[in-house]
Amino acid sequence: MTGPIKISEQHRDFFAMVFEVVKQIPEGRVTSYGAIARYLGMGRSSRMVGWAMNASHSQPEFVPAHRVVNRNGVLTGKHHFASPTAMQALLEEEGIKVVEDQIQNFETYLWDPAKELALD
DNA sequence: TGGGTGACCATAG
DNA sequence: ACTATGGCCACCC
Asked: Which pTM was predicted?
């Protein structure tokens, strides 16, 4: 990994925090909005994570938004991509199989930042 | 000023 | 197993 996030430093900018976490999702892995919210200490405000992702497309740096799905492994955000199939295509490029907007073997690919990223 | 909405989630019945 | 509801909190009329 590229290194843990220093919450205290990023704490002012919610967007930046979310993007930093998303950017650290390894290729071929996925996580959920709620997992990110919990990792950032936002409790149940998982909707805010989704809201933040809305702005991910206009980020100067690449944000792998396609690696963020809901807690069931469903591609709920696919409609916000360039095309309806773009999100699925990106995931399948990374070896993740998607059927009917549902990631197969979701638990296998799940990457929980709270578990995988050590807090400093 | 205030109500509706959302790329969500957990709980209750 | 499935629906309903509340919470979350910033944004947009």
From this structure: 0.87
